[in-house]
Amino acid sequence: MLQRIVIVGASLAGLRAAETLRDRGFDGELTLIGDEPHRPYDRPPLSKQVLQGNWEPDQTFFRKKDGYDALALDMRLGVRAVSLDLRAGRVALADGTFADYDRLIIATGARVRTLSAIAPRTGLFTLRSLDEAIVLRRALMDAPRVAIVGAGFIGLEVAASCRARGLPVTVIESLPVPLSPIVGPTIGDMVAAMHRDHGVDLRTGVVVTDVLGESRVAGVALSDGSRIDADVVVVGIGVTPNTEWLEPSGLTIDNGIVCNGSGEAAPGVYAAGDVARVANRWLGDSRRIEHWTNAVEQAVHAAENVLAGPEASTSFSSVPYFWSDQYDRKIQFIGAARPHDEMVIIDGSLADRTLTALYRRDERVVACLAVNQPRALIKYRKLLAAGASWDAALSGTSASYPA
Amino acid sequence: MKVVVDLSMCDLHGLCVEAAPEVFQIGDDGALHVLIETPPDGLRAKVDKAVRECPTGAISIEE
């Protein structure tokens, strides 16, 4: 008999797991533990609506305060989980209390990487949490010169938001073509050109060797010997899964919590979201995925399997999906491409920056990218999920190969 | 249950169409349409999934 379920991590995956457990009729004790003081909030708007000043921070909360009454949660916020005792079925918290469970769902997410050997100082920012978004937004109101380290999706969205505020922006990226490992060099070049057209000084193929300024940021030094003057430096160079607290637990940790297809890391212990490596039948592997929808899907899946039990558990199968809003463009990507997969534009054009592209590996279609063409993506989502062949995906289109 | 979509929030991610194609459709006009405003209880799990998976929180259920 399941009486006590504990969820560690009170962001998107943790909340969706709690909601699903209640939706499916679990009426026992449900504990949700989060290290941030805020009730669960949505992260995608932080780099866009919140930074641009279009949303107040409280618009990112998933539920109003009284929206939690119906979930009947023992919600413990502002307290970090520090260790897990699998034998006892107990999570220890930083305030000296414990949470005992019959089943555990771990959704502790990831945290931003910082530049190694660079001391914190005024004007040096990362962007992951609501509090970080609030302090960065405040800094942007002083009309600073902005340097962004890393032209990944977060860095590019911050760049677009800073340009919307009319701020001078330099972006520094170590790759020759931004985003190319994810979307390929052709689309990466298109995105780079879009940012340059919007006035971003995008420096590629260089790395930051130092952050200048003593008590407050004065700029960054680059590996090509140049120097960028800046009052605000935002570092967006990826994330690290929050697994340190689990190292002594006996769970298998290898760039995330390694889980089987049921989402189980050990009997009765499940993981979901950015921290998890759940075996994904569609992908054929168990890589860690940092997308919004992945957190939802794995959380719902884990919650359902918690209630179903090991005998009736289903195995996880999902086509990864993410999107990014930059300027007036929505980039949507579904599937998983590798840098050398062939890419074909089947509608629209690079010149218009409105297009649909398919990615091919051998005889299969493996991914679809759409820029401001959301309907196309819905069509190819179905084909990708069904494992369609390249010919089937391409039939009825007027494919054009990039020049 | 009654399905309510705030079209001003809809971003056409299409995840609801995948979760509950009986209820949601993107029309030829490029907008989201609710095909059944009061779906039968048998579709409850699918509609719940659509609500949970909507990246903009545009879908809600009124009992």
Secondary structure: elements and pairs:
The complex is a heterodimer of chains A (403) and B (63).
Chain A: E1 4-8, H1 12-23, E2 29-34, H2 49-52, E3 74-77, E4 81-85, E5 90-93, E6 98-100, E7 103-106, E8 110-112, E9 124-126, H3 130-140, E10 146-149, H4 153-164, E11 169-173, H5 180-183, H6 185-197, E12 201-204, E13 208-212, E14 219-222, E15 227-229, E16 232-235, E17 239-241, E18 257-259, E19 264-266, E20 269-271, E21 276-278, H7 292-312, E22 321-326, E23 329-335, E24 342-349, E25 354-361, E26 364-371, H8 374-385, H9 390-394
Parallel strand pairs in A: 1-2, 1-7, 2-3, 7-20, 9-16, 10-11, 10-16, 11-12, 18-21
Antiparallel strand pairs in A: 4-5, 5-6, 8-17, 13-14, 14-15, 19-20, 22-23, 23-26, 24-25, 25-26
Chain B: E1 2-5, H1 15-19, E2 24-26, E3 32-34, H2 44-53, E4 59-62
What can be said about this structure in brief?
The complex is a heterodimer of chains A (403) and B (63). By secondary structure, chain A is α/β, with parallel strands linked by helices. Chain A has helices spanning 12-23, 49-52, 130-140, 153-164, 180-183, 185-197, 292-312, 374-385, 390-394; strands at residues 4-8, 29-34, 74-77, 81-85, 90-93, 98-100, 103-106, 110-112, 124-126, 146-149, 169-173, 201-204, 208-212, 219-222, 227-229, 232-235, 239-241, 257-259, 264-266, 269-271, 276-278, 321-326, 329-335, 342-349, 354-361, 364-371.
Total domain modules of chain B: 1
Main sheet: strands, sense, barrel of chain A: 6 strands, mixed
The overall pLDDT of chain A, averaged over residues, is: 96
Biggest sheet: strand arrangement of chain A:
3-2-1-7-20-19
Distance between the termini of chain B: 5 Å
Task: Give the helix/strand class of chain A.
Answer: alpha/beta
Q: Please, what is the CATH homologous superfamily of the largest domain in chain A?
A: FAD/NAD(P)-binding domain
Which of globular, elongated, flat, extended, rod-shaped describes the shape of chain A?
Answer: globular
- CATH architecture descriptor text of the largest domain in chain A: 3-Layer(bba) Sandwich
Give the ordered list of helices and strands of chain B: EHEEHE
Beta-strand percent range of chain B:
15-25%
Low-confidence stretches of chain A: none
Task: Return the domain count of chain A.
Answer: 3
